[in-house]
Specification:
Blueprint lengths: L2 H12 L2 H5 L3 H5 L4 E2 L10 H13 L9 H21 L7 E4 L2 H18 L7 E5 L8 H4 L7 E5 L9 H4 L7 E7 L11 H10 L3 E5 L11 H4 L3 E5 L9 E5 L1 H6 L23 H21 L7 H29 L3 E3 L13 E5 L5 H10 L2 E2 L1 E3 L4 H6 L8 E5 L6 H18 L1
Length: 430
Amino acid sequence: MNQHQTAKADSAASFPVEDIRAMFPALKQAGDFIFFDNAAGAQIPQSVLDAVTGHLVGHNVQRGGRYGRSVTVDQSVAQARESVALLINAYSSEEICFGMNATSFIRLVSLGIGQMLANAKEDGRDEIIVTDMDHDANIATWLALEPAGAKFKWWRMREDGNLHVDDLAPLLSERTRLVACTVTAHSIGSIVDVAAVAAIAHAAGAEVFLDCVHYGPHGLIDVQMWDCDYLVCSGYKNFSPHMGFLWGRFETLKRLPTFREDFIPDEPPYKVEAGTFVYENVSGMDAAVRYLESIGRNFAPANNRSRRENIVAGMAEIRAYEIFLAREMLRVLSGVGATIYGIGDEKRVGQRVPTFCFNIGKLSPQLVVEEMAARGIGIRDGHMYAPRLMKRLNLSMDSGCIRASLVHYNTVEEILRFEVALKEIVARNG
């Protein structure tokens, strides 16, 4: 082991994973079961559960009233906006819009942009760039704008398992309206250089829409540093209940056509939040942000740090530990001769999160996943809601691939159990 690897191992050894696991009641209740399907939804800490329960017991009423419980709902929603604004480094908490999930927000924005396309054809910006690496929610939703006059260009993933800005540049022109891409592939775990995407897209006069659902639990979100125009996230991967949020620059959201009832102000966030959303889950999202903040505050302590600075410190600790886990998973998968889709080179491990899609020889993905389930290990098989990526990888929609996805409450010991199980399955069915 070289000096750099030793330093990384020491960093991973110092990460307080057992203390963190103790905060998650589902991990304790599950016993020996291994949660390696976190890309389909992570577990929640006790503090998030308490926040949801506290809302339902203490003030499960409609906001906007003059009595105490109703006032408390308004306060809790405002508090959650502030926390999420800090999580993503928004310019203002008014830019945070709560709702059902990321997909519904992508559709909301796409409908607004479609309406602007229909009403402003004279500007000539009718092209939208999409990728073949994204979740279909961030592809099909935009393609649905073709009847509104939208035209499309495809930014293709390279054989090395990532999107490259050099390939985006020739697609941009004075006709480009929007570039829609992921921050991190939910399927293969590749991280996109979205700050570079924004730089060249804005130079061409285009906007940037980011799907940040999968990146959220793995790294620091910074809309100011990324200089994007829209960003969506869902809580279920980010240690909170099922809900979502949309961020957009205030003036951009103000211009966006949306459905609203006449009594709703034509200002963000209100113009975006049609109807009543799940207030208790918003309280849970607030608590999830504070949980991530606590990692920086408690496990990487420093004096007089702001909430945002604690989030930065906490996510840095998580990122370093997860790179260690990713390196271990690459070792295990390479050891059984797996075909790893996406970034499989250990030297490029910093360009991915610990989410792995793979296949092993001619073994059926379904068989591997079922045998893992019998051994108390939860992983997933299928097309991963990415039909265009499956086609690119020459995989059928019926069988697809195997996905194992880790977060910071997973351990090296769990990876070793996974390795033993994988070797047994290969030996038994090879």
